Amino acid sequence: MEWTKVTVATVNEAVEAIANILTEAGAEGIQIEDASINDTLVGDVAAVSAFFPETVFVPEKLPLIRQRVLQLTEFGLAIGEGSVNLQQVADDDWATAWKKYYQPTRLTRFLTVVPSWTDYQPTDEREALIRMDPGMAFGTGTHPTTHLSVQMLEMVLRSGEQLIDVGTGSGVLSIAAAHLGVQDIRAYDVDQVAVDAAVANFDLNPVTQGIIAKPNDLLHGITGAADVIVANMLPVVLVPLIPQVPALLKEGGHLLLAGIITEKEAVIRETLSANGLMVEESLHMGDWVGLITRLKTDED
């Protein structure tokens, strides 16, 4: 089977938004490269590649893809070069690409994300495996923002909490939370395709039994407070999410935010403060920031 590979040259800030554009255009697989996994890329430069089956006539989709990529600047996102290129690849070439870029990755001391097709064995009896299908359009959770999110979950979870995963995507954070002892997890994403991908990944991880996964626009219409709300999304989405959080966060609970490029941290902090939330701790990985936040109290 022949596939068409569409590659967008961009920067780290825009990779998630561009991956979403390509997925909505009909891509059946997404591959994200940056300097951490490809030594031909330097600094903030990144590349997002999408694989389209031969049943999709990609040339007619290119103008809209290019237009939507350029429009990201209207939301305050830097897109770097922003060029869109395509090439034909064979099925076995694509399989090789997945194996090259999606290897088992240690997210934290105790959590390792593992592509479903590998026979990886834990190296430590305390090491828990998050099995993911690398054929899903949402990848396997190896992006720096995922590392930050899982690290923050490890820092605040003590088991037994109630957790809401907003913009669940591949479901990797819900799976991590389940491994960390959370039994009441609600996972939401605006895209039904993402919800389906998350459910498929939950099925690969028995520890996730009982997770509720549904399509939903951020936290609109959601009831029932949680001890922890986690969101790994771009700042353009985090800003409208933050005002929804105080009504759903239990006293002493935490809001964990990732997907924040360094240049946008100030905007996120201002939005948090304006909505009665304060930053307890910040984590950094390259150009990315993760924030552990909570509701302000009279003592603050």
Keywords:
single chain, alpha/beta, globular, 7-stranded mixed sheet, 300 residues, 32% strand
What pattern of helices and strands is seen along the backbone? EHEEHEHEEEHEHEHEEHEHEE
Q: What is the typical, i.e. mean, pLDDT?
A: 88
Helix and strand content put the structural class at: alpha/beta
If strands are numbered along the chain, what order do they take across the biggest sheet?
Answer: 10-9-8-11-12-14-13
Measured as a percent range, the helix fraction is 25-40%
Percent in strands: 25-35%
Report Rg: 19 Å
The number of helical runs is 8
Q: Alpha-carbon distance between the termini? A: 61 Å
pLDDT < 50 runs, ≥5 residues: none
Biggest β-sheet: count, sense, barrel? 7 strands, mixed
Describe this structure in words.
With 300 residues, this protein is an alpha/beta fold. 27% of the residues lie in helices and 32% in strands. The protein has helices at 15-24, 62-71, 91-101, 144-156, 172-179, 192-203, 235-241, 265-274; strands at 2-11, 29-34, 45-53, 84-90, 105-106, 111-115, 128-132, 162-166, 184-189, 212-215, 226-232, 249-261, 277-285, 288-295. The strands form three sheets. Strands 10-9-8-11-12-14-13 form a seven-stranded mixed beta sheet, sandwiched between helices. Strands 2-3-1-4 form a four-stranded antiparallel beta sheet. β9, α6 (192-203) and β10 (212-215) form a beta-alpha-beta unit. α4 packs parallel to α5.
